[in-house]
UniProtKB/TrEMBL annotation:
It comes from the Bacteria. Belongs to the beta-class carbonic anhydrase family. It is an enzyme of class 4 (lyase). Keywords: Metal-binding, Zinc. Its EC number is 4.2.1.1. This is carbonic anhydrase. The keyword Zinc applies. Its cofactor is Zn(2+). Gene3D superfamilies: Carbonic anhydrase. Pfam families: Pro_CA. Zn(2+) binds at residues 38, 40, 96, 99.
Length: 190
């Protein structure tokens, strides 16, 4: 059985047994916050539990490394929609120790692309069009500095209200312990 069929079979039972009822909520976060975190598998259940977050409490946005790399990219668009349309009044940017983005080998990724059938000419065309893949795919050396950078991109965005607290934290992926890197209340303008 394929993974897709396994999921669809489970879903039929989930719906028929009305398991969804215990998760019913609306689209507005009860705690009026957005959490931007890494897509690491260790955080899927651990991070919400470590923050006392339940279904319906927050908007979750996940990127590799909890990185906001471009002020007008899709991550920033999602943050702006959360603020203006979905009532998010605080932003939590949460990275984690032992993040895969801290050890990304860009040359290895590009090599794996060609091994999986992406023509080298495609990579060259992208590079020649002004997109620098090595910058686009790069990670970071220090998770705290990376979180500070993502918070700065959000905080300094011309479309983010200055009174919105933008917090930066790092979580331990084995225990769930949170360390505050930036207390957004200290930087938010009243």
């Amino acid at each position: 059985m394929t993974l897709l069929h396994e999921i669809v079979d489970f879903n039929k039972k989930f719906v028929n047994d009305e398991e969804y009822v215990k998760y019913e909520t609306d689209k507005f976060p009860d705690k009026r916050m957005l959490v931007l975190s890494c897509m690491d598998t260790r955080l899927v259940e651990l991070l919400p539990k470590s923050m006392n977050i339940r279904n319906g409490d927050v908007k979750f946005l996940k990127t590799a490394g909890a990185i906001v790399s471009h002020p007008f990219g899709s991550a920033m668009r999602s943050i702006l929609v959360a603020i203006y349309e979905l009532h998010a009044d605080e932003i939590f940017v949460i990275g984690h120790h032992d993040c895969g983005m801290s050890s990304v080998n860009v040359d290895s990724i590009i090599s794996k692309m060609t091994e999986r059938g992406i023509p080298e000419q495609t990579i060259e065309t992208i590079e020649n069009s002004g997109i620098h893949l090595r910058n686009f795919l790069r990670g970071f050396d220090d998770v705290s500095e990376s979180i500070k950078n993502s918070v700065s991109v959000i905080r300094n965005h011309p479309l983010v209200p200055k009174e919105i607290p933008i917090h930066g934290l790092v979580v331990a992926p084995d225990t769930g312990k949170l360390d505050v890197i930036i207390d957004g209340y200290e930087l938010a303008q009243k």
